[in-house]
Amino acid sequence: MSVQVIVGSQWGDEGKGKITDILAEKMDLVVRYQGGNNAGHTVVVGETTFKLHLIPSGILNENCVCVIGNGVVLDPEVFFQEIEKLKGQGIIVSPERMKVSSIATVILPFHRMLDSQQEARRHAEKIGTTGKGIGPCYTDKVARLGIRVQDLFSKDKLKKRIEKRHWEQVFPNEKIDIDGVVEQYFELGKRLKPFVTDTSLLINRAIDANKNVIMEGAQGTLLDVDHGTYPFVTSSNPVSGGACVGAGIGPHKINKVLGVTKAYLTRVGEGPFISELLDETGELLR
């Protein structure tokens, strides 16, 4: 039995997806434990390039089961778009090989709207957010106003929880179509349901059965909301400790932490970058 956490030791873009894909050949489960579709893992297999934002990199290995854990914020639209794109590249993502936590928090269109609005208001102090609603979704989760995956299965419950957030007060000058979003996400919930399970139980049972598991982090240590270059950070905990909370396992079950490092640092978005090269060498590396 081996439980390994793969962590970016810099500001992301270290090649975690490539490492995960290589190690997944000997793994039974690959688990995403934080972040959302703000991740970007590129894996090249032969002549084909796969770009994954939400689905774990282990999906390229047919013997591997992939898991989106409770610590991930899930955009159902992006989830199915990614499945369709992979299908076009010859990779079938079935409910047998892809599991989604029933208690993962769901990104709504309103979260994306709020993300873009907040970033625009920062002016010269922009954080460099992707605008995909990740931060506002995590904010609602902590404020106990989030929509969980399991909420998508009941139209009445879904509507009540969305209305509780009072989005019309957040966007007083916008036309907010609550009923339209409820209908859209209820239908997405129907499509999502075959993939949904208690992933914490699934992962712990796999560990107890001596299965090999990878916990795949997104972003990097220096973007951790607590330990990174705050406030120029992501909205979750990419560090190895985040795997315990985001996947629902105890820390004593982790055997190894692998830190992925690039030969030279890069940084996407805003924030301090003390060793940045602003000369010809920097241009050459870019």
3D architecture notes:
33% of the residues lie in helices and 16% in strands. The chain is α/β, with parallel strands linked by helices and 286 residues long. The chain has 2 domains: 2-102 and 196-260, Adenylosuccinate Synthetase, subunit A, domain 1 (Adenylosuccinate Synthetase, Chain A, domain 1, 3-Layer(aba) Sandwich); 105-192, Adenylosuccinate Synthetase, subunit A, domain 2 (Orthogonal Bundle). It has a 7-stranded parallel sheet, sandwiched between helices. Helix 3 (109-121) packs across helix 4 (134-142) and helix 5 crosses helix 7 (178-192). The N and C termini lie far apart (41 Å). The model has no long low-confidence stretch (mean pLDDT 91).
Give a topology summary.
Elements: E1 2-8, H1 16-23, E2 29-32, E3 41-45, E4 48-52, E5 65-68, E6 73-74, H2 76-88, E7 98-101, E8 105-106, H3 109-121, H4 134-142, H5 155-164, H6 167-170, H7 178-192, E9 196-197, H8 199-208, E10 212-216, H9 241-247, E11 256-260, H10 280-285
Parallel strand pairs: 1-10, 1-11, 2-5, 2-10, 5-7, 6-8, 7-9
Antiparallel strand pairs: 3-4
Largest sheet: 7 strands, parallel
Uncertain regions spanning at least 5 consecutive residues: none
How many strand segments? 11
Helicity level, as a percent range? 25-40%
Overall pLDDT: 91
How large is the radius of gyration? Answer: 19 Å
Q: Which sequence of SSEs, written as H and E, runs from N to C?
A: EHEEEEEHEEHHHHHEHEHEH
Portion of residues in beta strands equals 15-25%
Number of domains: 2
CATH superfamily of the largest domain: Adenylosuccinate Synthetase, subunit A, domain 1
Number of helices: 10
At the third CATH level, what is the topology name of the largest domain?
Answer: Adenylosuccinate Synthetase, Chain A, domain 1
CATH class of the largest domain: Alpha Beta
CATH architecture level-2 label of the largest domain: 3-Layer(aba) Sandwich
Side-by-side strand order of the widest sheet:
9-7-5-2-10-1-11
Q: Give the N-to-C terminal Cα separation.
A: 41 Å
Structural class: alpha/beta
